[in-house]
Amino acid sequence: MNIPIHTISLGCPKNLVDSEWLLGGLPGKAQPVERPEDAAVVLINTCGFIRPAVEESVREILDAAAAVAGLSPKPLLVVAGCLVSRYGAELAADMPEVDLWLSTRELAQWPQRIAQALSCDPAPAPARQFSSPPSYAYLKVSEGCRHSCRFCTIPSIRGKLSSRPLPELVEESQNILATGRSEIILVAQDLTAYGQDLADGKDLRALLEALLPLSGLKRLRLLYLYPAGLSPELLDFLKDAGPPFVPYFDIPLQHAHPDILRSMGRPFAKDPRRVIDLVRSRFPEAAIRTSLIVGYPGEGREHFKYLLDFVRQTR
Q1: What whole-number distance in Å separates Cα of residue 137 and Cα of residue 178?
Q2: What are the tens digits of pLDDT across the range 289-313?
Q3: Which long-range contacts (CB under 8 A, 24 or more apart) does 261-269 make?
Q4: DSSP 74
C-alpha cells in the first residue's frame, strides 16, 4: 500500500532525520507528492527554536490547512516537532484544523500515532526513507542536551542528553552506505558529549573508531562541536585518523567576551581563541564555522568591540 504524503521538514538536520524515520515507519510505503492537495497525509515537522522559525512554522501550517480545506476526503494534517513541544496546548486551541499533534517527547511513537489515525498498523520493521541528496545522509547520534545555556530552549524542548548505543549507530551507518551514499554527517546538539550518559563508557572517539573504517565511507563530517569538548586529545586523534574524516569544524562559540559567556551560562567556553588555535595547530587548512549572538542582554559597546576584534583576528 502506497501512502501519498506531502512532507515539509523545517529547521535543523536533526529534524530532517526525524522526518525520514517517520516516513519509513508508516504503514506501506510513503510516496512523496509535491502538492498537499494530492496527499493522504500532510506532515509538517516544525522548528520552534527562535522567533523567525516559529513564525515560519505557523505560516506553513496555515498554508497547508488552507490548501486542503474543503477537500473530500480531506488529507490527514499532522504537525510535529519542536514547535509542538514548546507551544502544543496553545496551538491546538488556535488551530482546530490540525488533525494530529506530535511532540518530540514521543518521537518513537510518531509512526504508530499516524497509523492509528489512518486506522492502519505501523510498519513492523521501520526503514529510514531518505530525502537528502543521494551523495550523503545525516546520522543523529543523540537526542537532547546536557548544557544549560540561558539563551537556549533545546533542553526544555528535546530533553536531557540521550545517546544512542554505538552498535545501533554502526548498523545505521552501514545501511546509509548500502544505499550508495558515501558521506555521513554526524549530528547532535553537542557531538562532543556523545556517550557521557551511556553506562558502557563509549564516547565520541569510540564511535569514530567504529565508523571511520566502514567500507564505502569516503567522507565523514561532524556537526556540532561544543568548544569545551574539543580537547587536544580528540583533535590529535582526528589528525592521525586522516580521511575519510573531513576537517570541517562547526563550533558554536556564541560570543568571545568572558563576561558575556558567563552571563550566557557558558563558562566552559571562556577561551574561544584557544579552541580556534588548537584546531588550526592540527589542521592549518581547516574550515571553521561558528554562530555568534550580538545584542545579548548586558552586552555593551566594549563587549561588542571585543567580539569584532576576535572575529577579525581569527578569520
Answers
A1: 12
A2: 999 999 999 999 999 999 999 999 9
A3: 263/150, 263/296, 263/297, 263/298, 264/149, 264/150, 264/151, 264/293, 264/296, 265/147, 265/148, 265/149, 265/150, 266/147, 266/149, 268/147, 268/226, 268/227, 268/228, 269/226, 269/227, 269/228
A4: P
Residues in the chain: 315
Q: Tell me what pLDDT residue 58 has.
A: 95
Sheet holding 287-289, edge to edge: 136-140, 183-187, 219-223, 245-250, 287-289
Could you count the other beta carbons within 10 Å of the beta carbon of residue 160? 10
What is the tens place of the pLDDT at every residue in 19-35? 999 988 887 778 889 99
Tell which residue, 227, 277, 222, has the closest CA to residue 252: 227
Cα angle 214-217-223, degrees, rounded to a multiple of 5: 105
Residue with the three cell numbers 546538539: 189
C-alpha closest to that of 189 among 233, 164, 155: 155
Sheet holding 100-103, edge to edge: 29-32, 2-9, 41-46, 76-81, 100-103
Q: What is the pLDDT of residue 88?
A: 85
Identity of the residue numbered 206:
A
For the chain, list the domains and their CATH numbers: 2-117 (3.40.50.12160), 136-314 (3.80.30.20)
Q: At what angle do helices 51-68 and 82-94 cross, to 10 degrees?
A: 50
If you write DSSP's letter for every residue of 106-170 in order, what string do you get? Answer: GGGGHHHHHHHHTTSPPPSS------S-TTEEEEE-EES-S---TT--HHHHH-S-EEPPHHHHH
Which cell numbers in the block locate residue 202?
563509549
Contact indicator for 84, 49 with CB cutoff of 8 Å: no
Where do we find the cell 550508495?
A: 180
Distance CA 136, CA 130 (A): 10
User: Helix 301-314 and helix 272-282: axis angle, to 10°?
Assistant: 0
Quick one: angle between helices 166-178 and 204-211, nearest 10?
Answer: 30
- pTM score, two decimals? 0.92
Please, are residues 20 and 129 in contact by the beta-carbon 8 Å criterion? yes
